[in-house]
Amino acid sequence: MATIRKRNRKWHVQIRRKDHPTLTRSFDMRKHARAWAREEESKLDRIQAWQSPVSMHRLTLGDIVRRYRDEEVPKKRGADVETTILNAFLRSELVNNKLSEIEPAHFAAWRDKRLQHVRPATICRELGIYQHMFGVAIKEWGLPLATNPLAEVRKPKRDDRTPHRIPDSMVLQLEEAAMKGRTPLIIALLRFALETAMRRGELLALQWSDINLERQLLHIPKTKNGCPRTIPLTPAATAILLSLGRTKETSFVFPITRSALAQCWRRLCRRAELKDVRFHDLRHEAISRFFELGLSLPEVALISGHKDHRMLMHYTHLRPELIVLKLNATEPRDHY
């Protein structure tokens, strides 16, 4: 219970709770003091409700998911995608279980059932979200769980898929398919992705204010690893931007949503009769082309934004026939 006293023309509020630091504050008006006291006591009530062992029998998994979605996810850069994943998870039967009943076996059964419909990589991503969710609930919300139930759930083995190289012939196929659609902007976006090796999110967030055409530089303020970078523009990339032109309607270079792009890409591949080709393969292709042009590892890392050179090698898929041409172009050495 909050204590409110008047001292020296001020209303002083003091709130004491067991296992919590004392809260104090002063106000000029009594009504403001009472309002603050009610708000803070309500917060403490919610905290104690979550930390109580009784909460394990009262709260459901759905309660955890909803709080995590509403309080933690908005702080993330990929909030939209993660919110969609959590909303879909809330439609499953698993979220109706009480927290006291949740065991690793529940998530293992959910994993096996989900594997019948989606790829292992999707399962790994979703399990990672739920494991982080329980970690936050235990460490920051005081949920009385001894261990994280997701820590003991085995993640499925990811597909050993080798990203496609995208030669010019395939680009032409995609462009011809795009011309039959209603989104001509996708052609410029596709070409620009091949010239810059930018991620999909970086392309869609690109604004004209980030571009310096005179110096042929492009600044990416928000990146996946949190480190802004400035990349050089190839002559072809500069030409693409000049062909687009800046309009007053929007500040974005490619005014298209993530979901619209995903849908457009699926239609393109279907029209072009290309199977298992992903938009992210464009980034793999672009990085491989930079190496084939003769750029050094640090130069390509500056463009791609990779901090780990081992991960950069994962994106590199050199064509052996080009290496043969290089070897044949070298002067023969004397044999001893």
Task: Tell me about this structure.
It is built from 15 helices and six strands. It is mainly alpha-helical. It has three domains: 49 residues; 83 residues, Orthogonal Bundle (DNA polymerase, domain 1), CATH 1.10.150; 159 residues, hpI Integrase, Chain A, CATH 1.10.443.10. The strands form two sheets. The protein has a three-stranded antiparallel beta sheet with strand order 1-2-3, with helices on one face. Strands 4-5-6 form a three-stranded antiparallel beta sheet. Helix 7 packs antiparallel against helix 8, helix 7 crosses helix 11 and helix 8 crosses helix 12. The chain starts with a strand and ends in a 7-residue tail after the last helix. The relative contact order is 0.08. The mean pLDDT is 87.
- What is the H level of CATH, i.e. the homologous superfamily of the largest domain? Intergrase catalytic core
Percent range of helical residues:
40-55%
Q: DSSP helix count?
A: 15
Report the order of strands and helices. Answer: EEEHHHHHHHHHEEEHHHHHH
Class by SSE composition: mainly alpha
CATH topology of the largest domain: hpI Integrase, Chain A
Shape: elongated
CATH arch. level architecture of the largest domain: Orthogonal Bundle
Keywords:
three-stranded antiparallel sheet; hpI Integrase, Chain A; 336 residues; DNA polymerase, domain 1; 9% strand; 3 domains; mainly alpha
Per-chain topology:
Blueprint: E1 3-7, E2 10-17, E3 20-27, H1 30-51, H2 55-58, H3 61-72, H4 79-89, H5 104-114, H6 120-139, H7 168-179, H8 185-196, H9 200-205, E4 211-212, E5 217-220, E6 229-232, H10 235-244, H11 258-271, H12 281-292, H13 297-304, H14 309-314, H15 320-329
Antiparallel strand pairs: 1-2, 2-3, 4-5, 5-6
Helix pairs in contact: 7-8, 7-11, 8-10, 8-12
